[in-house]
Amino acid sequence: MANSKNVLFGLYNDDDILIDAIKTARNQKLDIMDVFTPFPVHGLDPALGLAESRIHIAGFVFGLIGAITAMGFMSWISVSDWPIIYGGKPYWPVLSFIPITFELTVLFSAVGMVIVFFTICGLGPGVTAKVLDPRITDDMFCIAFDVSNMEENEKAGLQKFFEETGASEINQKSI
Amino acid sequence: MGSIISPIREPLVTGNKTYNQITEDICAPTERAPSISWVIAFSVANVLAAVFLFTSAWTIWQGVGTWDLNRTIGWGWDITNFVWWIGIGHAGTLISAILLLFRQKWRTGVNRAAEAMTIFAVAVAGQFPLIHMGRAWFAFFVFPYPNTRGPLWVNFNSPLLWDVFAISTYATVSVLFWYVGLIPDLATVRDRARGFRKKIYGIFSFGWTGSAKHWQRWESLSLILAGLATPLVLSVHTIVSFDFATSVIPGWHTTIFPPYFVAGAIFSGFAMVQTLMIITRYVLKLQDYITIAHIESMNKVILLTGTMVGVAYLTEVFVAWYSGYIYEQFAFYNRAFGPYWFAYFAMMTCNLVSPQIFWFKKMRRNLYVTFIMSIFVNIGMWYERFVIIATTLARDYLPSSWSLYSPTWVEIGIFIGSIGVFFTLFLIFVRVAPVVAIAEIKHILKSSGDQYLEKQKEYVQKQQFSEKN
Amino acid sequence: MQSFSFAAGERKFFGICMIIGVISLIITYLTDDPLNSRFWSNILINASFFTGIAFITLFLYAAKILAYSGWHAQFKRIMESFYMFLGIGLIFMVVLGLGTVMGFHSLYEWNNEMLVSEDIIIQNKSAFLNPMWYMFATIVFGASWFFVARQLRALSLKEDKVGDIEFKVHKRMKVWAAIMLPLGGFTSAAAIWLWLMSLDAHWYSTLYGWYTGSSWLVASVAFLILTIIYLKERGYYPKVTDDHFHDLGKYLFAFSVFWAYLWFSQYMLIWYANIGEATVYYQTRLEYYPFIFYANVAINFILPFFVLLRNDTKRKKGTLIFVSIFVIIGHWLDKFLMVVPGVDYTTKKILSATNPEAAAEFSRLIMPGFLEFGVFIGFIGLFGYFVFTSLSKAPLVASKDPYLEESLHHHVV
User: Fold this and answer.
1) What are the C-alpha distances in Å from C348 to residues B48, C334, C352?
2) Which residue of A has its CA nearest to B27?
3) A88–C268: do the CB atoms touch at under 8 Å?
4) Residue C231 pLDDT more than 80?
5) ipTM value for the complex
6) What domains appear along chain B, each with residue ranges and CATH number?
7) Are strands A169-174 and A6-12 parallel, antiparallel or unpaired?
8) Full-model pTM
9) Which of A36, A116, A138 to mutate to test the interface with B (most CBs of B within 10 A)?
10) Are the CB atoms for C411 and C242 separated by under 8 Å?
11) Are A123 and B235 in contact (CB < 8 Å)?
12) I need a surface site. Which of B179, B224, B306, C1 has the fewest CB within 10 A?
């Protein structure tokens, strides 16, 4: 593949060691490509300095769209398109519309957020996972560096970093 | 030290597990050939599912006349079953969503299976309104869409239509919530599998790698979906209760119905979770992940919600008297002493009286008692819906139209068959997907694993109870 | 461990509040109609509101013990001080009960022989709606709550002294907590029907009890937030962090939504079925009190919902104070709306039969006036004075609580 990357990665067998290693890497100004873990490790985001996820904004926007769609659609039908009096209630019985408005708010928000999540993460049916090591989804914690355009001495430096921070294995792979 | 855990808490993962052992233990059932007991259970479930297919096909072919519904009792076993299944479908979302917000860590052991149960229960529940329509192939009429019959729209004032939206939303969101949670675990199975299985799990795990940014978004998404699912799960059974409570039928029109239905749904949902989990943990050897502490916590929820339902029953009876409204008073008199007194009696004993046994710690931690109680509650909650629906309808305002109702073989077949459909789906699920959320168990291992609690105890001892204090 | 000192300035502040309350009560009494309905309804609104807050705090406290909830352990003393207010609040309720027995107020239509004699519906309810039962229920239910409250408080203080890593004292607290939940669940409904629902003696709603309880719950959390923020400003509770406020904010948000859910369920069902016996309650309120009726929903639902929807507003003291104050006023207005229309209806009816002149002069109290707010401030002063006094009597942090270390290291995931 044209845009395949050459990745140097170290595997750690404990999450606490991983967090310490990441802190060391950040202190040494190493450019971490990515970190892979079998479960969401507590304290990983601040250690990596990841900005907070903004996925909730998508949820809010989609929810708002859902609410407006539901309320607007029902109101248009009952007031303008085909007004019918049901059970002596007014043409625009807003209390009756609240349940469906609520449901569609939740539906739009949830579906929208999930779609956004899969899209920005690049996940979906048919996507082939770029697995560095199958044990990453089991009990190994991995720090990966992109070494495609690196000099040998830089690579050696990374090698040393892994050894010093207690990586149990160091490997290189093209993905 | 990461998170501090009080030594008063019981471990939620026992057996001195490592991360790798967790993976092995939970993935194993999906990787070995099915056991004999599974095959037998699956065959029985399949036979019952066939009964469901046959009886519902019979209904659709012959018409709803094959049931014993009549001009007075328009809703019988069908809607009873519908509400019962929907109620059972509440526990999964409750465990994953509400308990997440209330920081109850024990939910991690059971949430995956409970969510799956939710989806299957909702899927089964959805069949009943469909069959009840008679012409099930016109079911799409319930959705508002531009049509060729002039601008003819559905009635947005009808709680039955609200139900359509509530249940389809609930089904959709539950599936999303469950599947998003499942993806990392499917990736774990994928990375252990070979050949064809690897391909299949590769497709279903959506290319998950466990990247830090993905985990962060995944956690954020799960939390917000939990936040959305919490009011959603309340709204679903609330809207089911509106089907009854918006009417002017005595015994149906009462304002406590929404929260009382929700409490009842949680009650019956937890009972079904207990029924399933006690068997599952035994057959799949998951006792280290679904511990007695989990079972006890669920029994406490059953006791709590059972008593809440009890408060609601007594409130209803009291207010019926207090209202001074003779029709309302008669409705409750009829429930207790009318032709269906046995249903009322079964409901009261199973739902209000029998869960009180869980005041005793020994009983809460006894698997046999728990299992029997969970069956009791399932029965009691079915009778509750029967009491509300058929008993009330049988005796309305006009004595000349009073009527009685007993199910035909078709109705019984549909009900028993629906249990078969449910179990078929559940049994397939335990074969193909991890029954316990692997990643979430690993996440809590260092705070709730038994080998770590001793260290916690030392820490707390030093901080709180050493000499300097 | 830190202990709280009740500063002179604070004593003065709460003292002034109480004086405002007493003066307002005196003025109300002097300018009132012949039946003193405004005076007594003022007392009922506030007495039931603050007794309810104390009760529901006890209920929440018990629920938290049973649910293995730990993050609040640092400031559980504040909750204890809240629920010990039951002792004071119940005195007022007993006075109101004495009033029904001895007839020195006429808040309740069912307590007026003349009105009951020509009202078959109320006669049928007399097994429940009678002064002796009102008195009995108030005393027995109230005493049982207060008894449990004292047990829990005493055990909590004892734990400070003798607590060890086996947590024996905490396990005894669990027993009392387990008693409290069903006890409170069953009796509070009856108490709420007697104290509040029976003001509209013909009307009934099965949801009324839980609805009122949820309203108290929101107010209780709001008071808790304000107290913690204040004490933190004074330098106490250094280890209460934004994470604790985040969770308290979540409570305020979630319980407000829950309250709105119950409000909607009750109102929508009555509106939808449109049965005269049931709609009359809302009919009166919409006709005479439209402003408070809509303000109730706006302040207690729309405001907390939109302000606290975001995560950061739950962590900021400014927004929390803002919402808490509004919500307390909002739920007090809700109580006003529960009490005053029924009382005014009864008063007018009695006056027209006994004193036509006064009846002609009598007009509904559409909005709470300065006197109502004055009495409310007086009760806040009393509540605050009591809470701060009882805070000063015990260590501010329960040093041997099993969950203390968890609470000190609490992080919102």
Assistant:
1) 67, 22, 6
2) A138
3) no
4) yes
5) 0.92
6) 19-468 (1.20.1630.10)
7) antiparallel
8) 0.93
9) A138
10) no
11) no
12) C1
